[in-house]
């Protein structure tokens, strides 16, 4: 497979959020600000790349019947590593993402890529696939986070664009996540149709 | 390379190896990040204390002691001293009367109980309403601010309840909860003042050695 | 009527049309509009005009530039949405919030689902709830009636009877002491209390109900089911402990019960088709309203209740089908 296509498919054609609708839990849960979305996306990208790498390495040693538990252990290990590292070096981000970091383990996207891609492809393609998918996921989360932060609290990446009193609170809350995601997906679909 | 077959021996062995490697690498990472995590937590606590009781020279985290309020809530007290003399105490207080769940506040009191400053540590209040408490009671506008006030001399309840503090617009419950947390801190601190060694050797007249 | 256009033959036309019914509802709202103009004066006029004009504008703009289909602004449905939205807002609401509310009501509540006839939720309520969650401070500052006639943004504000009650009960006061702090039932009936523009005068809304029943624009099932279930539920609670739970009359005359039961819940598109289904739907709204008011965090729950039951309408329609036109009654009982 062409490695560029392999990488770029994660951004648009097979974007985890906009096309596959995978990983909805963090997508809706942590995107109340752009920086949270970006942080979550990058943490997931790290886990995706590393778990794809390890799964591609050990895929031939794992008996078929225990492959899912094995993948989950690998993923959980990397998630815990990310969790501890973030707690140590970016405590503020760790606090605002909270419970959603350990929940990366159950992000369908990570297990999905391990099962559907890394266990069938070679090391290089798997790493590139993980990177593309992860960065595509980060992009989607940052976009959603930016929209919600801008509409909800009048800021973008923490910079004040307009006074917070004019912000629509609903976008900071859970219903706003659904509304914003719905319109974002509709918009992307429209662009795809025209492209 | 041939795929390993799904025999019982193979499956047990693979899972064993994977979990062992995972466990070992996690243990290694834990050792590696243990120091920085503790340092980050201490720094956060130190920063909060510095905000509510500025100007101390000791390490309040080392002299921390715990008290239990009448309501049975656990409070952490950090005596802040400048050159050995007590200039205030930072109290990590909480209340369960919030709009949704607990509200945790760090409040700095002078030895006589006057409020120096506060910082909201943890809460689950409604964004845009209850969340305003982080700045609301510091803002010098109308009767919003509680800084420099004394819970004994000033009636620190919201004006709807007959007090002299303006509640956050449309978030009376959160305002009540916040003021309740401050009251818990003050009451517990003053009640235990006489029995606490950390406070006895201060310039305040209220205390007194045992 | 919308349901006739989707049903199978026979296609005998009764002279009903979307347009006729929509304007009928608007006429029925005139007494309430008059009441709100009387009590809130200038503010009510500004809010109503802004909401109606912006709703019609957004409907026209979205249909022309996004959906690119035939314009339906002349059928009166957008104007009705704007009118109902205005009746749900405090009469001192800043204009930019009203415009956002209209955009949400028409854009998200109606056009996203494909326009008139396809919206599962009442568009005006979608707009109102969106504003209530987004701008809780502005949306819960109600101007006092009469005194605010000549004022707009600087009108004197006060709490609604419902939030006075809720606040008092939370502080451990009893219903009887709280009742002395709110307007009397007669005043509530004729509208002299704080509240959103159109929900204050029960009398004016009831005139609208009678008009719509006579003109057969709506049937009695939904309003009666809602008002009845609220009366029964709060009556039981009141009998259990009259000091903690306010009586049925208080609940019926305050807040948006009348407006919701008569004009909001009866929206053709988002309510069930069969009479039995309408009653189930109405009881659901009544019960949820009381649960939110008495046990929930918000003092008012009518709009949430109607939106929640809107979501159940497809399910209700699936199990309670309307009798087909011309169907022979099989048993003597039915």
TrEMBL record, chain A:
It is found in: Cell membrane; Endomembrane system. It is an enzyme of class 7 (translocase). It comes from the Bacteria. It holds the Pfam family Rnf-Nqr. The chain crosses the membrane at residues 39-58, 70-90, 96-114, 126-147, 167-188. It is a multi-pass membrane protein. The keyword Cell division does not apply. The keyword NAD does not apply. Keywords: Cell membrane, Electron transport, Membrane, Translocase, Transmembrane, Transmembrane helix, Transport. GO terms for biological process: electron transport chain. Its EC number is 7.-.-.-. One of its GO terms (cellular component) is plasma membrane. Belongs to the NqrDE/RnfAE family. Part of a membrane-bound complex that couples electron transfer with translocation of ions across the membrane. The complex is composed of six subunits: RnfA, RnfB, RnfC, RnfD, RnfE and RnfG. This is Ion-translocating oxidoreductase complex subunit E. It comes from Carboxylicivirga sediminis. The gene is rnfE.
From TrEMBL, chain B:
Its cofactor is FMN. Its EC number is 7.-.-.-. One of its GO terms (biological process) is electron transport chain. Residues 98-189 form the FMN-binding domain. Signal peptide: none annotated. Residues 191-210 are annotated as: Disordered. It is found in: Cell membrane. GO terms for molecular function: electron transfer activity; FMN binding. InterPro entries: FMN-bd (IPR007329), Ion_transpt_RnfG/RsxG (IPR010209). The keyword GTP-binding does not apply. It is a single-pass membrane protein. GO terms for cellular component: plasma membrane. Keywords: Cell membrane, Electron transport, Flavoprotein, FMN, Membrane, Phosphoprotein, Translocase, Transmembrane, Transmembrane helix, Transport. It is an enzyme of class 7 (translocase). Its main location: membrane. The modification FMN phosphoryl threonine is found at residue 172. The complex is composed of six subunits: RnfA, RnfB, RnfC, RnfD, RnfE and RnfG. Belongs to the RnfG family. Part of a membrane-bound complex that couples electron transfer with translocation of ions across the membrane. This is Ion-translocating oxidoreductase complex subunit G. It comes from Carboxylicivirga sediminis. The gene is rnfG.
Automatic annotation (TrEMBL), chain C:
Its cofactor is FMN. Keywords: Cell membrane, Electron transport, Flavoprotein, FMN, Membrane, Phosphoprotein, Translocase, Transmembrane, Transmembrane helix, Transport. InterPro entries: NqrB/RnfD, RnfD_bac. The modification FMN phosphoryl threonine is found at residue 160. It is a multi-pass membrane protein. The keyword S-adenosyl-L-methionine does not apply. One of its GO terms (biological process) is electron transport chain. Part of a membrane-bound complex that couples electron transfer with translocation of ions across the membrane. This is Ion-translocating oxidoreductase complex subunit D. It comes from Carboxylicivirga sediminis.
């Amino acid at each position: 497979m062409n490695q560029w296509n392999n990488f770029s498919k994660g951004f648009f054609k097979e974007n985890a959020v906009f096309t596959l609708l995978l990983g909805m839990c963090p997508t809706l849960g942590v995107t109340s600000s752009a920086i949270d979305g970006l942080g979550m996306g990058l943490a997931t990208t790290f886990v995706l790349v590393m778990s794809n790498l390890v799964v591609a390495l050990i895929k031939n040693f794992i008996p078929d019947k225990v492959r899912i538990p094995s993948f989950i252990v690998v993923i959980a290990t990397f998630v815990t590593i990310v969790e501890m590292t973030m707690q140590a070096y970016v405590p503020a981000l760790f606090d605002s993402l909270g419970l959603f970091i350990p929940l990366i383990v159950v992000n369908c996207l990570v297990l999905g890529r391990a099962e559907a891609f890394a266990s069938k492809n070679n090391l290089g393609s798997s790493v590139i696939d993980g990177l593309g998918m992860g960065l595509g996921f980060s992009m989607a989360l940052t976009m959603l986070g930016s929209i919600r932060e801008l509409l909800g609290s009048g800021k973008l990446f923490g910079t004040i664009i307009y006074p917070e009193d004019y912000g629509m609170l609903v976008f900071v809350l859970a219903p706003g996540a659904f509304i914003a995601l719905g319109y974002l997906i509709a918009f992307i679909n429209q662009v795809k149709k025209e492209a | 390379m041939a795929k390993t077959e799904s025999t019982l021996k193979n499956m047990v062995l693979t899972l064993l190896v994977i979990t062992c490697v995972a466990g070992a690498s996690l243990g290694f990472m834990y050792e590696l990040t243990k120091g920085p995590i503790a340092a980050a937590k201490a720094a956060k606590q130190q920063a909060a204390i510095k905000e509510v009781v500025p100007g101390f020279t000791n390490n309040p985290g080392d002299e921390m002691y715990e008290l239990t309020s009448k309501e049975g809530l656990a409070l952490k007290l950090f005596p802040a001293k400048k050159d050995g003399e007590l200039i205030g105490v930072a109290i990590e207080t909480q209340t369960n009367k919030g709009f949704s769940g607990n509200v945790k506040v760090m409040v700095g009191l002078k030895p006589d109980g006057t409020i120096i400053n506060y910082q909201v540590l943890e809460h689950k209040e409604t964004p845009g309403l209850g969340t305003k408490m982080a700045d609301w009671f510091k803002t010098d506008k109308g009767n919003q601010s509680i800084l420099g006030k004394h819970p004994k001399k000033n009636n620190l309840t919201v004006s709807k309840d007959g007090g002299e503090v303006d509640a956050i617009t449309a978030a009376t419950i959160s305002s009540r909860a916040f003021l309740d947390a401050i009251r818990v801190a003050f009451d517990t601190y003053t009640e235990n003042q006489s029995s606490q060694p950390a406070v006895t050797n201060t310039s305040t007249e209220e205390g007194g050695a045992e | 009527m919308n349901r006739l256009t989707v049903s199978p033959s026979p296609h005998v036309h009764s002279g009903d049309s979307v347009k006729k019914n929509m304007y009928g509802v608007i006429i029925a709202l005139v007494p309430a509009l008059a009441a709100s103009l009387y009590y809130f004066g200038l503010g009510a006029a500004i809010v109503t005009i802004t909401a109606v004009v912006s709703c019609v504008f957004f409907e026209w703009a979205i249909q022309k530039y996004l959906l690119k289909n035939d314009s339906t602004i002349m059928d009166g449905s957008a104007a009705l949405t704007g009118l109902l939205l205005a009746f749900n807002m405090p009469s001192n609401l800043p204009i930019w919030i009203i415009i956002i509310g209209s955009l949400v009501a028409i854009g998200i509540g109606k056009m996203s689902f494909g326009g008139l006839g396809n919206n599962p939720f009442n568009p005006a309520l979608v707009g109102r709830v969106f504003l209530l969650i987004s701008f809780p401070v502005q949306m819960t500052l109600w101007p006092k009636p009469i005194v605010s006639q000549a004022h707009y943004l600087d009108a004197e504000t006060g709490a609604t009877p419902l939030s006075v009650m809720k606040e008092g009960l939370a502080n451990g006061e009893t219903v009887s002491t709280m009742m002395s702090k709110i307007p009397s039932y007669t005043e509530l009936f004729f509208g002299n209390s704080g509240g959103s523009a159109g929900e204050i005068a029960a009398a004016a809304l009831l005139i609208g109900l009678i008009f719509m029943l006579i003109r057969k624009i709506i049937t009695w099932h939904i309003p009666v089911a809602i008002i009845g279930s609220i009366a029964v539920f709060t009556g039981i609670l009141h009998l259990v402990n009259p000091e903690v739970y306010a009586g049925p009359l208080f609940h019926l005359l305050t807040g948006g019960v009348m407006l919701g039961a008569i004009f909001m819940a009866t929206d053709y598109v988002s309510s069930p088709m069969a009479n039995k289904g309408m009653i189930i739907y109405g009881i659901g709204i009544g019960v949820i309203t009381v649960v939110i008011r008495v046990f929930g965090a918000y003092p008012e729950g009518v709009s949430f209740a109607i939106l929640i039951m809107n979501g159940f309408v497809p399910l209700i329609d699936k199990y309670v089908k309307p009798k087909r036109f011309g169907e022979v009654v099989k048993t003597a009982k039915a």
